[in-house]
Amino acid sequence: MQKKILRHIKSCPVVVLLWLLGGVSGLTAEEQVFQKIDSYVAGMLGTPVPESRTLWVDQDLRDVIGGIIKYPAPLRIPYWQKQDMSVWILNDLGKLYPITAGVTVKGGRIYDISVLIYRESHGAEVRYPAFRKQFEGASLTGDRKLDKTIHGISGATLSTNTMKRLARLALVLDQKITGQTATGD
What we know:
By secondary structure, the chain is of the alpha+beta class. It is built from 6 helices and 6 strands. Strands 1-6-5-4-3-2 form a 6-stranded antiparallel β-sheet, sandwiched between helices. Strand 4 (about 85-95) and strand 5 form a beta hairpin. The termini are far apart. The relative contact order is 0.16.
């Protein structure tokens, strides 16, 4: 299963390009793995972990994703689903490198968001529970913004913004697979 997950992540050409550029230029950040992807998924959905599913990104969804994250939308996005929970492993650009986060949505609201892999030299404080707890229960407004205020961390503004974008993206993707839409409240 881990190979399948890594294959999905590596299918994002921007991530591969950033890794290559970092390697060529010598500007590689130290990659900090806080939690393995399969461990995160199992922690959220229990074992046995359901098979991953694939959300194919059509043009409408691509346009929505393009309005949220800095990367071009991938062609497909893997996810795991069990009852009313969906788990997403998502990447978006921090300052120079992608941040990989696991985002779990339950009943259309953020249940958990965790930094799984952090590659930047500053801002890793977004991995701390005190920061992540702000996202719990957040949902989307009608204009696809979070309905809760997320307070930033001094010195970690870009990482904070990345985590907000990833939370919004997971909620949009959850709406896509469940057919639910934002209530606008």
